[in-house]
Specification:
One of its GO terms (cellular component) is nucleus. This is NmrA-like domain-containing protein. This protein has 163 residues and is of the alpha/beta class. The chain has one domain: Rossmann fold, CATH 3.40.50. The strands form two sheets. Strands 1-2-5 form a three-stranded parallel beta sheet. A two-stranded antiparallel ribbon has the order 3-4. The longest helix is centred in the C-terminal third of the chain and has 15 residues.
């Protein structure tokens, strides 16, 4: 039996939906052009969370003007995400780092650019909040209201997306 290879990119929107479509029936190894222990900011359930931030930015009024808000409360490594996905779905999974060249061979020119994005994320924290940001706390966002990575994967699993 041939091995199946899946890439976990951490993308959102239509791109992320494509990743979920690839993953949902394909257990096994996940390859990525990044250190499996590199941490990224997670937005969680994109059908819920952006609305929470939008509501609270509008409610914050003047104090939110000219500020950036990271629509996320969690920072997980690719390995942590895979471990949680495996725990929830009961499927085996492992994140394996590959070179930029291997990633590009797999995904084409877009893969090269994505590998650069991963590398950039390893070298610095592009989502680091500074004075130009407004925090979830400042916006009055309650952590219990936000659907994080685990809740998102659990809802996908309950919907049968990984069967």
């Amino acid at each position: 039996m041939a091995e199946k290879i899946i890439a976990v990119t951490g993308a959102t929107g239509a791109q992320g939906g494509g990743v979920v479509n690839v993953m949902k029936k394909t257990p096994g190894w996940k390859i990525i052009a990044s250190d499996p222990n590199a941490k990224i900011l997670l937005a969680g359930d994109m059908s819920v969370n952006p609305g929470i931030w939008t509501r609270q930015v509008l409610a914050a009024g003047p104090k939110a003007i000219g500020k950036y808000a990271n629509v996320a409360l969690e920072r997980w490594s690719f390995k942590e995400m895979m471990d949680k996905w495996s725990e929830i779905t009961g499927k085996k999974g492992r994140v394996v780092q590959v070179s930029e060249e291997e990633w590009t061979a797999f995904w084409g020119p877009a893969g090269r650019e994505l590998s650069w994005q991963f590398r950039f994320g390893e070298l610095c924290d592009p989502w680091e909040a500074g004075s130009e940001h407004i925090s979830a706390e400042e916006l009055g966002i309650q952590e219990a209201e936000v659907v994080g990575f685990e809740g998102t994967i659990r809802s996908f699993a309950q919907a049968g997306l990984f069967d």
